[in-house]
Here is the input.
Amino acid sequence: MSKLERDKLMRFIDRGMGILPARFVTQESNRLTIVYFGLSSLDVTNSLDHIADQRSAIIDFVYSLQVLPGPDNNYERCGFRGSPLIGNPWNPNCEPIEQLKHDYAHVANTYVALCILKMLGDDLSRVNRPAVMGGLRAIQAQDGSFRAMFCGSESDLRFVFCATAICSLLNDWSGFNKDLGFAYILKCRSWDNGFGQGPEQEAHGGSTYCALAALSLLGRIDELEGKDSLVRWLLERQISGFQGRVEKVADTCYSWWVGASLAMLGAWDLVNHDMCASFTYSCQHMIGGFSKVPGVSPDPLHTYFSLCALGMCGHDGFQPLHYSLGLTHRAAAAPTVFSS
Amino acid sequence: QETAAAEGGGGDGDGGGSEAEAEAAAAGRVAVLERELSFCAQAVRRNPKSYWIFNQREWAAAQLHALGQCNWQHELELCSTLLSYDARNFHGWNYRRHVVRMHGTSDESEFEFTTSLIEKNFSNYSAWHQRSNLLPRLHPRPSPEYSAAIARELDLVQNAFYTEPCDQSAWIYHRWLVNEYPEPHVIEQEIGRCEELIDIAESAGEKKWPILGLVYLLQRRATSSDLERAVHLVAELSALDPPHAAYYSSLASSLASSLASSLASALNAPAGAGAGAAPGGGGGGDAGPPS
Here is the structure.
């Protein structure tokens, strides 16, 4: 099949933002990212009006997940959490509140929170920007990398990207040491010209996207050496769809990670668009939505990135994408109280 | 557990009694942490790609290490087992690099480990990748020892090319090797080797990588006839590997412009000057790049 099954897609997205199958319970702490995948799927396909009546409820839900400074004004844990599973009180108006023990923001969820608000046309006026910046400052390591939460996690390029996107969306870099961040990104460059998640790690399509998007948002992508070799590494990932690493199978989400990387380097035209679209459609499921590889269950993440890929391959009527922010141009351009 | 540690760590100079308590508390702590490691090992069998299971393992091992009780050799063996189930599991490789640092395993020993993986399966990009990390640590760079090591790697990848002719891994590693040792005699040698591989190739899939490898080598040596030949080879690649036609087209363009400037500078050079820019035979008549 090489046609988008729109009705089934809409029902799939609805379910993805309603009740998920039991196996997704392990993703509860990142529920907000699943909401992002659903809403962004609607945005990319020009269908946000589908949830128009839920718009302000979703906005309130996002704000209810803001981790606010307590009376001592300590910003270390601030940003957005991914879910109310810690038992936080319902506080969508972001009134001052005691901090809960073990309650921490997660940088990826802070990123998607801001994305969702922008997509829904919220002006970010309830975002405590100094607190978010303080939260970023607290999770940047001496080597320039970022972990996900103040209480600890692994430290790598995924969270560096999230931090750059947060600063960009809030128009404030006070929580981000740019020189250290830039230096860390370069340390992740591998001998084969791709980027690994961290120094010494194998080059990977996802981390290469994170590196390039972060460099782009830092305004320093032109300082990248060996661009041609990097373009070649990325192009060689296309085997039908794209693989994430050398000699792995094609997976729809890499059409985005690798595809957007090539787009940021001005080389998207060197990709075989027909082959990419064809692979993507081979992953469209009969219940709607897209899976990572043909013949397995679809999920919100792979659905979103598949739609991005189809848009990049020229699908009619899809919204153009802002590659480094991970949003449509329209959402990225939506004005906020922090716009310059 | 916390209470036991507090009681144990009192340091009130009470002699034998509190010392015994301290020992018991430490032993209790060690037991808890070892059970945690065992739990993580069970969990990782079901979820070999979970960041958090590895984070927890690393944390528990660090706690044991602080008590002087971490069996890093066991940790290393666990990594080897994990990588034997999935040689590309980057969580396993990351944890292994961490264990190697903590345990003080030698680079030579790790290098041998990657050799054993590659000998089992040449299509192990993660193992080739680890070698690229280790080689510059094993020998000063640049140095004759380093070049000799790279030369040995160039021989090793030949085995991969013959055993797994359609596999990308060794070819990408090959590009890096040539970059690390770009001496003319090495380029010559590798050009010859690529040509042999092209001769014995039985299918499009088997031809593609040696032809591409040859193109990059010719691009390096960059005499006018090299560049001309490279342009023809790229046209052949377009036919063998149509999905990547757009890339080959851009490669052909850049080869053509290298060829044009190489011919132009040969025409402008004084008589007898310059190696490597000799025009094709026949006294410099036809200076245009082949289409």
Summary: Chain B touches chain A through 27 residues (CB under 8 Å).
